[in-house]
Each structure stands twice: as C-alpha cells, then as structure tokens.
C-alpha cells in the first residue's frame, strides 16, 4: 500500500475531512459545485456509457459515482483509507457500483492485468497534491489502451492563482480549509503539456474554470489563469512508455 510518490501530509488533510465528503454544504462544496461541469467535459469528449474508466485520486467517490451513473465501468483509486471507506458506504446507499482500491497508480501500472486496459482515465484536483505529478502521468500512459483518453485538472502557478486559489478561497471566502493547497505545487499548463508529451500523449483541449464570487457560480471558458482542465489522448502506436 506504500508508494514513494505520496505526500502523507496531503493524505492526512483529506482523511480528517472524509466524513463530510458527500455534504454539499461542507468544505467539499466546491467539488459538488464543479462536478457537473467536470462530468459534462469528460462525457462530451469521451462518451462514458460502456467505457472502462479509472479515477485516480477518487477521494470519497464524487466523480467516480457520477461517471458510473452515466454508464461507465469505474475503478476508483486513492491512498486515503477514510475517504475510500466513505466512498464505499455511499455506493451502498446510492446503489451505484464502483470498484474502489487503496493503491498507488504506479503500483497498479506494474500489474500486467491492468496495463492497457482502460478506455479513459481521470485525474482531477489531485496532481497538485503529489511530489512527482509526471510519474502519475507516466503510469496513466501504461494503463490506457492505445488511443485512450486522459483528463486532468489542476491549478495554474502564477501570482493570480496565489491570490484567488489560496488567499481568496482559503482565507477570504473560506471556501476551502486553510492549508488545502501549496502554491509551489501548482502546475502551469505548459508544464502539464510537457508531462503529457513525454508520456506519449497528444493534448486535445485546454479549458479554464472560473468562479464568480458574487454569483457563486463556476463556469468553463478560455481563462486558464487559475483552474484548468486538460484532455489528452494516448498515441495509437502503443500503450505508453515501458
């Protein structure tokens, strides 16, 4: 269950909040608010019905259940025991089936039974919480079938993102617990594109996500200064680097 590409302090943050994961008025309200946008973004570019999908950093299962509800066969992995327990319990209550595993993606990518087996992989709001995001992308390439789709989302690294994602979200608007994010771990789109290209992916789309503090509404658009989503497709010539 151990992995070198795991920040135990980051895991502990979400372990402490796990019981409130499915409360839409809790610290996870932003995730509840953006989940329909994320689901539509994925479903429009890689239609979910019948697809075999891996949700990396699934937490309490919010996105995993959403994708399964739309007809995907979903496996959710995370390193937090408490969020996974919450995810499994909520699945029993909702009747939505997701296969949850507590395992690092790099370990999963070493299992021949999983290599090249997924049609799509999602890794949303997770890469800014690990020491080596490029290692996650490399593992995704191994697990996807040739031509498979990868969806990532994270936070840009610039003065504006520090002001909005940390000062604004954590200290002014109290949308997130203080200390949720570390600015130095944010990832510029150019850096993400490099990770993807080196792993054998072609970037298909870059879309920003913005929040209006007056209307409290999120929307997708061209502004990638703070939050952004990226869709990439694995080269057809193989299932990623060896």
UniProtKB/TrEMBL annotation:
<comment type="pathway">
    <text>Cofactor biosynthesis; ubiquinone biosynthesis.</text>
</comment>
<dbReference type="Pfam" id="PF13489">
    <property type="entry name" value="Methyltransf_23"/>
</dbReference>
<feature type="binding site">
    <location>
        <position position="78"/>
    </location>
    <ligand>
        <name>S-adenosyl-L-methionine</name>
    </ligand>
</feature>
<dbReference type="InterPro" id="IPR010233">
    <property type="entry name" value="UbiG_MeTrfase"/>
</dbReference>
<dbReference type="GO" id="GO:0032259">
    <property type="term" value="P:methylation"/>
</dbReference>
<feature type="binding site">
    <location>
        <position position="124"/>
    </location>
    <ligand>
        <name>S-adenosyl-L-methionine</name>
    </ligand>
</feature>
<keyword id="KW-0949">S-adenosyl-L-methionine</keyword>
<dbReference type="GO" id="GO:0102208">
    <property type="term" value="F:2-polyprenyl-6-hydroxyphenol methylase activity"/>
</dbReference>
<dbReference type="InterPro" id="IPR029063">
    <property type="entry name" value="SAM-dependent_MTases_sf"/>
</dbReference>
<keyword id="KW-0808">Transferase</keyword>
<comment type="function">
    <text>O-methyltransferase that catalyzes the 2 O-methylation steps in the ubiquinone biosynthetic pathway.</text>
</comment>
<protein>
    <recommendedName>
        <fullName>Ubiquinone biosynthesis O-methyltransferase</fullName>
        <ecNumber>2.1.1.222</ecNumber>
        <ecNumber>2.1.1.64</ecNumber>
    </recommendedName>
</protein>
<comment type="similarity">
    <text>Belongs to the methyltransferase superfamily. UbiG/COQ3 family.</text>
</comment>
<keyword id="KW-0489">Methyltransferase</keyword>
<keyword id="KW-0831">Ubiquinone biosynthesis</keyword>
<feature type="binding site">
    <location>
        <position position="57"/>
    </location>
    <ligand>
        <name>S-adenosyl-L-methionine</name>
    </ligand>
</feature>
<feature type="binding site">
    <location>
        <position position="38"/>
    </location>
    <ligand>
        <name>S-adenosyl-L-methionine</name>
    </ligand>
</feature>
<dbReference type="GO" id="GO:0061542">
    <property type="term" value="F:3-demethylubiquinol 3-O-methyltransferase activity"/>
</dbReference>
């Amino acid at each position: 269950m151990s992995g070198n590409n795991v920040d135990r302090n980051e895991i502990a943050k979400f372990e402490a909040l796990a019981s409130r994961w499915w409360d839409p008025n809790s610290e996870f309200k932003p995730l509840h608010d953006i989940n329909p946008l994320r689901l539509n973004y994925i479903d429009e570019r890689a239609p979910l019905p019948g697809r075999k999908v891996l949700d990396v950093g699934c937490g309490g299962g919010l996105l995993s259940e959403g994708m399964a509800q739309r007809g995907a066969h979903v496996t959710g992995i995370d390193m937090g025991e408490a969020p996974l327990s919450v995810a499994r319990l909520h699945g029993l209550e909702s009747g939505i089936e997701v296969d949850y595993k507590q395992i690092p993606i790099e370990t999963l990518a070493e299992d021949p039974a999983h290599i090249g087996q997924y049609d799509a992989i999602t890794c949303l709001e997770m890469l800014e919480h690990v020491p080596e995001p490029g290692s996650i992308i490399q593992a995704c390439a191994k697990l996807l079938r040739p031509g498979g789709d990868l969806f990532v989302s994270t936070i840009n690294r610039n003065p504006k993102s520090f002001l909005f994602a940390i000062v604004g979200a954590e200290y002014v608007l109290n949308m997130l617990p203080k200390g949720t994010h570390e600015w130095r771990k944010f990832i510029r789109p150019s850096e993400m594109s490099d990770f993807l290209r080196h792993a054998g992916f072609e970037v298909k789309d870059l879309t920003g996500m913005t929040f209006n503090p007056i209307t409290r509404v999120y929307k997708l658009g061209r502004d990638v200064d703070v939050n952004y989503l990226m869709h990439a497709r694995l080269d057809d010539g193989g299932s990623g680097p060896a």
